[in-house]
Design goal:
Shape: elongated
Mean pLDDT: 94
Largest sheet: none
Strand content: under 5%
Number of strands: 0
Oligomer: single chain
Low-confidence stretches: none
Radius of gyration: 21 Å
Number of helices: 6
Order of helices and strands: HHHHHH
Structural class: mainly alpha
């Protein structure tokens, strides 16, 4: 089938062809298995974006809390930027809220590594689990002391 071979050799062309087939309701000609895989991948991508945003945000919250002498406008702006992006991501994908606790736990592991790398502090300096609630993480006025 030409559609399936284009999936491997020219993804852009394959995607355009599949979109056209679906719009024309020519389902029998569509590469259903690969379309389904790509839709699944889009959902996983949104979850990865959630974890990534949270990791950056949590890293900066940890640095804010544990390095008060190094606080800067840059850190504050990064925190604000990530909170805005997080709010937008959750607004556009409300079903991700159900995965928020798991995403925070995943992101916190990444944030711990980044905070250790960026501060030079030992692992035991930081709490082993995320010390911030989802509400605190998202709140524009929350900065840990």
């Amino acid at each position: 089938m030409r559609n399936a071979s284009n999936y491997e050799s020219d993804f852009h062309a394959w995607a355009g062809e599949q979109a056209a087939l679906l719009r024309e309701r020519r389902f029998a000609e569509a590469d259903i298995d690969n379309i389904a895989e790509e839709i699944d991948a889009l959902g996983r991508s949104e979850k990865r974006a959630l974890v990534s945003r949270l990791a950056v945000l949590l890293t900066h919250l940890l640095k804010w809390q544990f390095q008060p002498g190094h606080r800067s406008a840059s850190w504050e702006l990064t925190i604000s930027e990530q909170r805005r992006a997080l709010a937008r991501l959750l607004r556009d994908n409300p079903s991700l809220r159900a995965a928020l606790d798991e995403a925070i736990a995943d992101a916190y592991g990444d944030a711990l590594l980044a905070a250790r790398r960026e501060t030079g502090f030992a692992a035991q300096t930081f709490p082993p689990t995320c010390p911030y609630t989802p509400g605190q993480i998202a709140a524009d006025d929350f900065y840990p002391e």
